[in-house]
Each structure stands twice: as structure tokens, then as C-alpha cells.
Backbone:
């Protein structure tokens, strides 16, 4: 495929933040439903969620910054907050929150965090979404580990997440969902527990030692919801909610390869299986009737961390895979057939997760310390920033505005002799 590369002629980059603090954008859902606010967390380093105290927003039109949530008694051990994203239908933000009792003995960790929401009109008021229950018998709809990288469904009614259990095989990462629930999931009020507004369940089946050549996986991760309103199967059946996720399998030679898996989300089946919460000595189980299926064979996704993306109509899943030169490129996979093909053929390697524009005609990503937009219709890859290799680092995942007129991204900027991660906007 012949790609035309061109650089935007006019300087289009505008600084949206300038305060001497970190302003980390999440990989999804950074815009409010009306496009007027962008949410960020206070990290100046991607690895420092446990040390970060604030969730903030910046106004797209005025540049006004607001703190909408701040932790109490923050230390280097926690609780910590980060990875914030807006609901697509209401002014609610979901983010990772470390356990309130985090300390030096039990600091913020992948198994000690939960999903919390805050509403723009009720700042500083946390809403704990997934219940955490460390006391037996475990409460159906609760978990006992850490949820992470929460992602809203297209209608804002559900959330997906990745999860690591604290008590059993904590290294096995899985994918789960939170469903609407009447009333709270009530648990015992002891340290390490919290009530939850939503019903949480695990939907990916993992094993510690997959059989080589089988469809068994030892890690499920970095998922996306399929379509804004689900997808249609090859026999024209409508599936309202479904998730695509990355799964690590072992090939016949025993080498780990990453493929795409799909699981349909049936709310009734999930909630009716009260035993899926598991017993002492067990991880939470996948509810009966919920089954994952392997979509790709030989896609061998890139080991560069990224999240899957779906077309609005739910017919395609997008991911990163390496081309014959070892460069990260975007591939597209048909949901109903598993057939996949390369979308990009850049002479360089994509060095960030990527996002799709709403109409699914454009993809944005970082490469060679610059932000690019690839237009699938014109087959052009447009460089929209003008950084050299020695300029401050462009970081994270760029995102399109809801109307597709500009892209926002993170870049470090010198302030008072220190570098702080700022939010920038590049007009298309």
C-alpha cells in the first residue's frame, strides 16, 4: 500500500494547560459529552498513579482548570488516583482509585484499587462503582482485587475493566464488566472493603498454564466495547453488548502470541449466576453461559502496549501488529470472520496507543516524537506536529475531539527549570 506523507503547512498547535503540574490524559474518553471539558489526572509520570492526588478538567474554550476530585491524606504509598475518562452520555468521570487505607505496608498496587466516579456538578464526592469484599462468604457482584483502565460502553450504561485478584493468582490479568444495579452491592464494613453502585463480574476465562496450540489464554487485557450499539452477527442476529480483548495464547512451539478474542455480554446470565463470585481459595469465575471465542489466528498482535478499538457499527476491530520490517502498524479485523489486513504501511513504527475518529475514517497516533493522523479514505498519513527528536517528549495517547476538528495530546514542557506534562491541541 502506497502511503502519502505530508506535513501540515500551518502551525496549528495550541497549549491548553500551562500550570506547573502533571496533566495526564487517559487513552479513552477524555472529552465530556458536549466536548467542552477535557479530563486529566495529576500524574507527571505514567507510573505514578499511587502517588497522584487529583483528577482535574480543563475547559476547551477558556483554558480554565478545575480540580474535581482530590484524595485525602495522600502519600507516596497511596491511595492514588488516575486514568480518568468521561461517560459518553452524562457528566460523570470514572477513574482508578487506590484503597483509602493504603500505607507503607499495603501500598497502592494492581490488586489494591477500585473504580470510582465523580460528577461534574458534585465535585469531591466519590461514587464507588465496583464493590470490594474481602470477607467470606463473598457477596455476588463484588470482587476482591483491583480494577483498572475502565472503559464506558457506547451508551454509558456499562463499564469494562481489567482486573487482578489479590488473594488467588494475582498475576493472572482478566477482563470484567460492571453492570447497572438497583441499589448498592452491600459488603461488610471492614478495612479493604467498599460498597459498590454497580454489579461487577469477570467475563474472560484464563488459566495459569495454557496448552500449546490451544485457545486457552493466560492473560486477557486491553479491551474495547464492540460498536457504539453492539454488532450484528453473520446470521443477522443483533448483539447489544460485546467486548473484544487481547488474549495471550501459546502456539504449538510454546511461544506466547497475542490474538483477539470476543465475549458477548448478557446481563441476565451474568446476574443469575450467584456462584460466579467464587469461594475461598478461588478467583471470581466467569458466569455460566458467558463464553469467549477466539477471533484471530495468526494476527500475532504487537507486544507494544495498546488498546483495541472498534468501528462505530461494530463490524471491525483495530489493533497494532508488526509488519515485515518490525514496525508497529494498524490492522483491521472483521468481527464476523476474523479476517484481518494491514491498514497502515508507514515507513516508521507507531509508538503509542491509537484512537479512531467517530466516523472511523481517521486514526491518530504518535511516532518519531510527533502526532500523526492517518486518513483511511485518502490513504494519507499527515504529520500534524513539528517536533524534532531532541524536543520535549510527546507522550501517551492522542484523542480526537468529538466533532473531529482537532486532536489533543500530552507533551512535556519546561516551566521554571522542570518538565511538566501539558495538554496540547492540534487543529486538523
Residues:
Amino acid at each position: 500500500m502506497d502511503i502519502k506523507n505530508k506535513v501540515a503547512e500551518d502551525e496549528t498547535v495550541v497549549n491548553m494547560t500551562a500550570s506547573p503540574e502533571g496533566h495526564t490524559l487517559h487513552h479513552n474518553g477524555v472529552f465530556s459529552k458536549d466536548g467542552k471539558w477535557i479530563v486529566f489526572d495529576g500524574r507527571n509520570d505514567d507510573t505514578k498513579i499511587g502517588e497522584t492526588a487529583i483528577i482535574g478538567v480543563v475547559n476547551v474554550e477558556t483554558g480554565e482548570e478545575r480540580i474535581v476530585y482530590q484524595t485525602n491524606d495522600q502519600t507516596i504509598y497511596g491511595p492514588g488516583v488516575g486514568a480518568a475518562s468521561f461517560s459518553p452520555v452524562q457528566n460523570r468521570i470514572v477513574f482508578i482509585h487506590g484503597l483509602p487505607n493504603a500505607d507503607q505496608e499495603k501500598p497502592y498496587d494492581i490488586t489494591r484499587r477500585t473504580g470510582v466516579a465523580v460528577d461534574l456538578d458534585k465535585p469531591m464526592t466519590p461514587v464507588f462503582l465496583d464493590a470490594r469484599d474481602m470477607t467470606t462468604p463473598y457477596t455476588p457482584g463484588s470482587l476482591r482485587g483491583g480494577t483498572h483502565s475502565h472503559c464506558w460502553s457506547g451508551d454509558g450504561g456499562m463499564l469494562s475493566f481489567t482486573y487482578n485478584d489479590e488473594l488467588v493468582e494475582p498475576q493472572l490479568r482478566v477482563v470484567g464488566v460492571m453492570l447497572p444495579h438497583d441499589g448498592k452491592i452491600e459488603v461488610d464494613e471492614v478495612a479493604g472493603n467498599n460498597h459498590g453502585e454497580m454489579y461487577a463480574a469477570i467475563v474472560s476465562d484464563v488459566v495459569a498454564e495454557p496448552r500449546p496450540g490451544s485457545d486457552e489464554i493466560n492473560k486477557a487485557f486491553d479491551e474495547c466495547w464492540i460498536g457504539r450499539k453492539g454488532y450484528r452477527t453473520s446470521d443477522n442476529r443483533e448483539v447489544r453488548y460485546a467486548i473484544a480483548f487481547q488474549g495471550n495464547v501459546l502456539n504449538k512451539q510454546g511461544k506466547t502470541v497475542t490474538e483477539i478474542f470476543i465475549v458477548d455480554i448478557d446481563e441476565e446470565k451474568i446476574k443469575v449466576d450467584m456462584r460466579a463470585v467464587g469461594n475461598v481459595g478461588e478467583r471470581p469465575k466467569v458466569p455460566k453461559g458467558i463464553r469467549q471465542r477466539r477471533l484471530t489466528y495468526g494476527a500475532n498482535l504487537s507486544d507494544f502496549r495498546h488498546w483495541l478499538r472498534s468501528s462505530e457499527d461494530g463490524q471491525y476491530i483495530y489493533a497494532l501488529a508488526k509488519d515485515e520490517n518490525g514496525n508497529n502498524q494498524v490492522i483491521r479485523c472483521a468481527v464476523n470472520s476474523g479476517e484481518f489486513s494491514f491498514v497502515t504501511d508507514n515507513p516508521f513504527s507507531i509508538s503509542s496507543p491509537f484512537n479512531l475518529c467517530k466516523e472511523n475514517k481517521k486514526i491518530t497516533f504518535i511516532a518519531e516524537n510527533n502526532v500523526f493522523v492517518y486518513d483511511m479514505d485518502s490513504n494519507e498519513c499527515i504529520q500534524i506536529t513539528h517536533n524534532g527528536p531532541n524536543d520535549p517528549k510527546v507522550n501517551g495517547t492522542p484523542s480526537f475531539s468529538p466533532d473531529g476538528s482537532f486532536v489533543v495530546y500530552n507533551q512535556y514542557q519546561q516551566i521554571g527549570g522542570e518538565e511538566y506534562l501539558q495538554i496540547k491541541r492540534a487543529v486538523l
